[in-house]
Amino acid sequence: MDANHSASRPRRCEDPAGGHEFIELLEALWTRGREVPYAPVSASQLRVLYTLDRDEGINLRTLGELLDSAPPSVSRLCDRLEALGFVRRLPSQVSRRELELHLTSHGRTYLQELRSRRDASLLEVIAAMTPAASRSLLLGLSGFRDALGQTGSAPGLRRAGDARSA
């Protein structure tokens, strides 16, 4: 991602402990099996949107590696997201044979609104916890993050840089 993309993206509050990533993980667990009224996309499609938000301009092959999915499945996911107006495919600046995947402004707005609602809901739950319970949750999630970093074995949670260097 270049400086222009990160500069144009609205800044979320500073979060040195990686809390926003944890919230994304918690959201996936929290919404499993639930109907989410504000989610016009599936969990798999949401993973694509999160990935493109972090790694703007990647190609289908790299996205497939990050999601640990077969190329036809990734292509169908992107077809649906493109039909919703959340994603667009553009010719690569590097190779005329490749297409780059980009979030549209509609896709970015959707993610911003989703994160705002998600953050408010989860922060309300965390506020209802005792201070000891919230400290324990933070400690546990920090341990989870550390263990994940050591094993590197969670499909779909890797960064594009990890897949390229593999």
* Name given to the CATH architecture: Orthogonal Bundle
What fraction strand? 5-15%
Instruction: Look at the structure and give the CATH class.
Output: Mainly Alpha
Strand adjacency order, main sheet: 1-2
Described by the principal axes of the CA atoms, the overall outline is: elongated
Spans of at least 5 consecutive residues whose pLDDT stays below 50 are 1-13, 155-166
Oligomer designation: single chain
Largest sheet: 2 strands, antiparallel
> Which structural class should the secondary elements be placed in?
mainly alpha
What is the number of helical segments per DSSP (H or I, 4+ residues)?
8
Total domains, how many?
1
The termini sit apart by 19 Å
- What does the average pLDDT come to? 77
SSE blueprint and pairings:
Elements: H1 3-8, H2 19-31, H3 43-54, H4 60-67, H5 71-83, E1 87-91, E2 99-103, H6 105-128, H7 131-151, H8 160-165
Antiparallel strand pairs: 1-2
Structural description of this entry:
Helix content is 62%, strand content 6%. It has helices spanning 3-8, 19-31, 43-54, 60-67, 71-83, 105-128, 131-151, 160-165; strands at 87-91, 99-103. Strands 1-2 form a two-stranded antiparallel ribbon. A hairpin with a 7-residue loop joins strand 1 and strand 2 (99-103). The chain is mostly helical and 166 residues long. The two termini are 19 Å apart. 14% of the residues are buried. It has one domain: Arc Repressor Mutant, subunit A. It has 8 helices and 2 strands, in the order H-H-H-H-H-E-E-H-H-H. Residues 1-146 form the HTH marR-type domain. Pfam families: MarR. This is DNA-binding transcriptional regulator, MarR family. GO terms for molecular function: DNA binding; DNA-binding transcription factor activity.
